[in-house]
Specification:
Helix content is 59%, strand content 13%. The protein is of the alpha/beta class and 222 residues long.
């Protein structure tokens, strides 16, 4: 794993998870990323909020299912207090609903358990680059146009990033149910959609005997 040239010399992290093993393994992965420093570890959502208030980390890695207060509630509260905090949701759930709830809470990234050190490093790097690009766009926009235009663009970019990550997971696990089809159909609305996503969607249509949709999609693949 390599440190992005876009990132600062030091990034401060908070880890929030009720599972000891996950906290330990996540901390170990972060120790292998140059410039990463774990400044706080929480066992539940309430602890995460308090430690985020005290330590002011750059990133928070937050599990969805925790006692006292779940991860999505904790993320909302932390971002309300510190809007520039980059929260990454960690979850064993691989479904569209959890993804959409994470986005709604304000999360910038989404990792499904079990994840690797490379996946963690790549997610951190992508989030930091998007934050820098967003900051640059705001700086270059006229003051009257910047908030609406750049925020809309950033939210769309964030949504697309989540959907691509989820689609990659579905393809890797060869998932062909309705939720996988829903995610791939959203991505397919983009005229620049990657062919591999269209191919995966075509296979799902074929397995579900949706010949009308498959015929339309096949024309795009030709």
């Amino acid at each position: 794993m390599t440190q992005s040239t876009e990132s600062p010399e030091q990034l401060r992290f908070l880890i929030a998870d009720d599972m000891t093993e996950t906290r330990r393994s996540t901390r170990l992965m972060l120790s292998l990323i140059p410039g990463a420093e774990v400044v706080a570890i929480a066992k539940n959502g309430r602890e995460a909020i308090e430690l985020a208030r005290q330590q002011k980390p750059d990133f928070a890695l937050v599990d969805v299912n925790m006692p006292q207060m779940n991860g999505l509630q904790a993320v909302r509260a932390m971002i309300d207090e510190n809007p520039i905090l980059a929260c990454i949701i960690i979850s064993a759930e691989r479904d569209t609903q959890t993804l959409l709830e994470a986005m709604s809470a304000g999360a910038r990234g989404y990792l499904t358990k079990p994840f690797t050190g490379d996946q963690l490093s790549s997610t951190i790097d992508s989030i930091w680059k998007r934050k820098r690009a967003h900051a640059a766009a705001v700086a270059n926009q006229p003051s009257s146009a910047a908030p609406a235009a750049t925020n809309t663009g950033f939210l769309r970019q964030q949504r697309d990033f989540f959907l691509v990550e989820l689609a990659n997971e579905y393809i890797r696990t060869r998932r062909t149910d309705e939720k996988a089809m829903q995610v791939l159909e959203i991505l397919a609305q983009d005229t620049q959609c990657e062919p591999r996503f269209l191919t995966a969607l075509a296979m799902i249509y074929a397995l579900n005997h949706q010949w009308g949709k498959l015929k339309i999609l096949a024309a795009r693949l030709e």
